[in-house]
């Protein structure tokens, strides 16, 4: 019987988490973890699979016989721009654990802005006891840009909480109970939106999309007083100077950011201390490494059984 191809692991994740997740994973095949010094110069020819997140620059020149590349996260822009990426399927990580975590984060941020958490924090520091006017969720429209697995799940959960929810994607999608818009309807979508949620992949079309011109098109007379920007998609899709200017001028009433143009966020950035900003360190939907390896194992099994891989990146679209 032909031995099964090893799996290359090149993940810039927490080493203890990776080590723990590898126990019991890929039980019937060898794992070559490139974080181990013994594997730094190992011959990687003849190996079919690689699981990557910010891998070494020479990975693909060393592993020339790959049949599939698996992204360690939902995003793939870091993979698609790697030097020497072979013409093989690139597979996105789609898993319920990741989807649930992203929806939790999006829902939390929308509720923080709805319930004026920053304003109450400021009152608490000054020992002010005063109830603020409280709009209901049904009075607030959340507009989600990006209606893939993550965006669709977040939309349904926000809808259950009573928010009015609309969605936008480059090509129109149908989601039960959610009004959706396509590229031609962007301005109409923005004019409806009080809380703008970015869950878009990073492509040539989305780079720098969240800028001053776009923020100016959001609804001005909504229940929150001023629109809010929430981004957990990709940092390259936002212009942080424009976000700060919009917050300072009142064009935006608040922001929640999990992704940034440069990560880690530079210490000198005003986003660290801005009174209208909630920040998290690209942690909205951190990959569950055990779930990642289980997902990769399932996809390898499909491929070796003659079935099509799932969640393969469309190279022309970039996601």
From TrEMBL:
<dbReference type="InterPro" id="IPR006140">
    <property type="entry name" value="D-isomer_DH_NAD-bd"/>
</dbReference>
<protein>
    <submittedName>
        <fullName>Glyoxylate/hydroxypyruvate reductase A</fullName>
    </submittedName>
</protein>
<keyword id="KW-0520">NAD</keyword>
<dbReference type="InterPro" id="IPR036291">
    <property type="entry name" value="NAD(P)-bd_dom_sf"/>
</dbReference>
<dbReference type="GO" id="GO:0051287">
    <property type="term" value="F:NAD binding"/>
</dbReference>
<feature type="domain" description="D-isomer specific 2-hydroxyacid dehydrogenase NAD-binding">
    <location>
        <begin position="110"/>
        <end position="284"/>
    </location>
</feature>
<dbReference type="GO" id="GO:0016491">
    <property type="term" value="F:oxidoreductase activity"/>
</dbReference>
<keyword id="KW-0670">Pyruvate</keyword>
<dbReference type="Pfam" id="PF02826">
    <property type="entry name" value="2-Hacid_dh_C"/>
</dbReference>
<keyword id="KW-0560">Oxidoreductase</keyword>
């Amino acid at each position: 019987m032909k031995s099964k191809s090893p799996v290359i692991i090149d993940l810039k994740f927490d080493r203890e988490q990776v080590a723990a997740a590898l126990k019991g994973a890929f039980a019937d095949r060898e794992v070559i973890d490139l974080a181990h010094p013994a594997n730094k110069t190992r011959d990687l020819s003849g190996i079919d699979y690689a699981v990557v997140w910010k891998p070494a620059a020479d990975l693909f020149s060393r592993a020339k016989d790959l049949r599939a590349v698996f992204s360690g996260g939902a995003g793939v822009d870091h993979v698609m721009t790697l030097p020497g990426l072979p013409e093989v399927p690139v597979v996105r990580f789609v898993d319920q654990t990741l989807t649930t975590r992203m929806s939790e984060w999006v829902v939390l941020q929308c509720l923080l802005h709805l319930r004026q958490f920053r304003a109450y924090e400021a009152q608490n520091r000054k020992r002010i006891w005063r109830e603020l006017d409280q709009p209901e969720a049904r009075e607030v429209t959340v507009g989600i840009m990006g209606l893939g697995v993550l965006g669709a799940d977040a939309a349904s959960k926000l809808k259950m909480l009573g928010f009015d929810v609309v969605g936008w994607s480059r090509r129109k999608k149908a989601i039960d109970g959610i009004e959706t818009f396509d590229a031609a309807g962007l301005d109409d979508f923005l004019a409806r939106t009080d809380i703008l949620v970015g869950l878009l992949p990073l492509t040539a079309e989305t780079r720098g999309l969240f800028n001053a011109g776009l923020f100016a098109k959001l609804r001005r007379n909504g229940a929150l007083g001023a629109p809010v920007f929430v981004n957990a998609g990709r940092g390259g899709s936002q212009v942080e100077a424009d976000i700060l200017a919009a917050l300072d001028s009142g064009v935006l009433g608040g922001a929640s950011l999990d992704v940034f143009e440069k990560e880690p966020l530079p210490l000198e950035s005003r986003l660290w201390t801005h009174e209208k900003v909630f920040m998290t360190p690209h942690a909205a939907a951190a990959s569950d490494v055990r779930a990642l390896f289980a997902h990769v194992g399932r996809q390898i099994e499909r491929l070796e059984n003659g079935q099509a891989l799932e969640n393969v990146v469309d190279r022309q679209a970039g996601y």
